[in-house]
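Hi,

I'm pasting everything inline rather than attaching a file, because the server keeps stripping attachments. The sequence lines come first, and each chain or strand is labelled.
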Amino acid sequence: MLKEKANVIRRDIIEMLYESKSGHPGGSLSACDIVTALYFKEMNIDPKNPKWEERDRFVLSKGHAAPVLYAALAEKGYFDKSELLKLRKTGAMLQGHPDMKGTPGVDMSTGSLGQGIAAANGMALAAKLQDKSYRVYTILGDGEVQEGIVWEAAMFSAHYKLDNLTAFVDFNGLQIDGKNEDVMGINPLDKKFEAFGWNVIKIDGHDFDQIIDAIEQSKNTKGKPTIIIAKTIKGKGVSFMEDQAGWHGKAPSQEETEIALKELGGVK
Amino acid sequence: MMKKIATREAYGEALAELAKINDKVVVLDADLSKSTKTASFKEVCKERFINVGIAEQNMVATAAGLAAAGMIPFASSFAIFASGRAFEIVRNSVAYPKLNVKIAATHAGLTVGEDGATHQAIEDISIMRSIPNMTVINPADGVEAKAAILKIAEYNGPAYIRLGRSKVPVIFDEDTYEFEIGKGIQLSEGNDVSIIATGIMVSEALKAKDILEKENIKARVINIHTIKPIDEDIIIKAAKETGAIVTAEEHSIIGGLGSAVAEVVSEKAPALMKRIGVNDTFGESGDGSELLAKYGLTAEDIAKAAREIIANK
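And the predicted assembly:
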């Protein structure tokens, strides 16, 4: 069931990017299964009441993966699916990067890398200060952890024992200029977060059982935040996009769109 | 002798009061709580005082998250770091989503003194007022600072409050003073020249008025505590009725109060102007008041500019 949902979302991502002629398919498709698990299995939310105070929060720290978030929100019923095809167009609701003021269901405006995890900390801390039981989820890109603020935030989450925070790293190994390890090495990422005082879980980010199990573990971990380092494939689901840095921020042509949709079990 | 208090002291007092009256207020600091005076909040409300360590960018983004979840965070640091180091986070994570974050920026301007150019924020008004949704406040004395802090805690939206390190003369009466965001205050009558000042330069402007008075020049002194949104009406009126304006700020002459006033005047009521401020240069180490003199920010400098401009009317 989650697998089917993820497939629908992947198809929506391809269609919306084709229509907008710009955007970020690679990192949207790699994070798709995690986002699907959060929105269709884990998070305590109400699409009819997007601002509900007790809701779980989601911060897409890697804001350029906005298409996966928009597709999930539309599928969940936050807004009409027709909005998806207006992505990035002048006057449209769906901005190139998430805008919390303009889009129902978006909990934080993101896009400038590294800031989302710090904002997620703020939300998690606010829950503690106000004695609320909601959880905060965030997804970081692997390239994103090159930003200094990520480590300022990582120190903070552990120092303030934010065990109501679950962060994911969408570890697809690629960033705009190529492989992470060629651009600026980030490994060993698990040891780094461990040293910063986090509970670290490593999973296959396309295996729903592992994703859900890891989230459960994070909920049962007391006194420290959890980071789920999810090994993913950039462009997952579309053969010619898979593991290609070139598909970080490029829209598919009509022909490519048709092939992609066919592979994802649908037609344009 | 006139009572003196630093506006950062007033910030500390206001926070201690807010701790009691508003349980949504949370104070963040980046390891400067004794200097920024947020320690006074910590003393009375330890649970809502958050030290982020030496990490101003993280402080501002964390504050954004707190505000997104319904709290009223006051993120505090030296003005140079709050406006400079954290600029892009203030822009993208606070102002763009219009979150209810208050940036309390202490140790602004030349009068931070001995620490020198690296610690003297003389560009912060310019930077902050160029960001959409941002309210920019620069109080003239301790009374105004305290009132401003209490007021912006009630205002829902991003705000930048500029505070100073050094003790400055108290101008206003605590019992009668009322702070209104965006409303300039006329402090003296006069139609020969208008002196429009902000922050600690308001007391210098009042001294300049006294100097000019002895020469039979009547100066209208206006305190602009809110640089954005600026009080256009009071500026247009001053331009029309006096035809000559001197602005005074402890800030670069580029992009600050002088520029903001010039924008209004040039479009709505052209008048001769001179800007008193730091003349597109970095500061240096030294005693605060000596630096004000060296960089041309004294009452006498204001009076001189007023005389020159009147001569050209």
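Chain A touches chain B at residues 53, 57, 59, 99-101, 107-112, 114-115, 118-127, 129-130, 148-149, 152-153, 155-156, 159-160 (CB under 8 Å).

If the labels don't parse on your end, tell me and I'll reformat.
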